[in-house]
Amino acid sequence: MTPDELQVYIVNLGNYNQGKADSGRWFHLPLDFDEIRETLQLGKNGQSEEYAIHDYELPIRISEYESISSLNHLYENLLTISDTPFYPIIQELLDEWFNNVEELAGNIDNLIYYDTNSMSELVAEEIGDGTLFGELPTNVLYYLDYEKIARDLEIEGNYLVTTHGIVEYVN
After folding, report:
1. CA distance 85 to 78
2. What is the largest CA-CA distance in the chain?
3. Among 3, 41, 118, 148, which residue has the fewest nearby CB atoms (within 10 Å)?
């Protein structure tokens, strides 16, 4: 899902609660509150000014009562991440390390992406090229238990195995 495809389904809460059909519309981010107000007739002819988000196509979870300004702020932060390998796994990163997309965007330089889903493969590669423990003699490599090292690294909390690769958080 690209930033151009991000959208929310907003309903006029008064109309919705009265059971009126067609009380909502899809709007692409960034949102224009005047357009939403006009389209949903918020506050017109005694209509309710309350709205709610009943559906969304975003890479993260949001509340049905999210404000328009916070959604636009979210959109700006998503744009800064959209060209990175972290964009498809934003929610996983939020669930593990960050409180919001703004914090994630501010820490993007502290994240390293590995295009593998196997910690033991990553450990073998990192040990082999000397990244993890420095240069080790070849005969020592035969005695290492890559699975246990991988498990220990994952338990330490600086590595996250996601649906689209592994991320290391270097803070």
Report:
1. 12
2. 82
3. 148
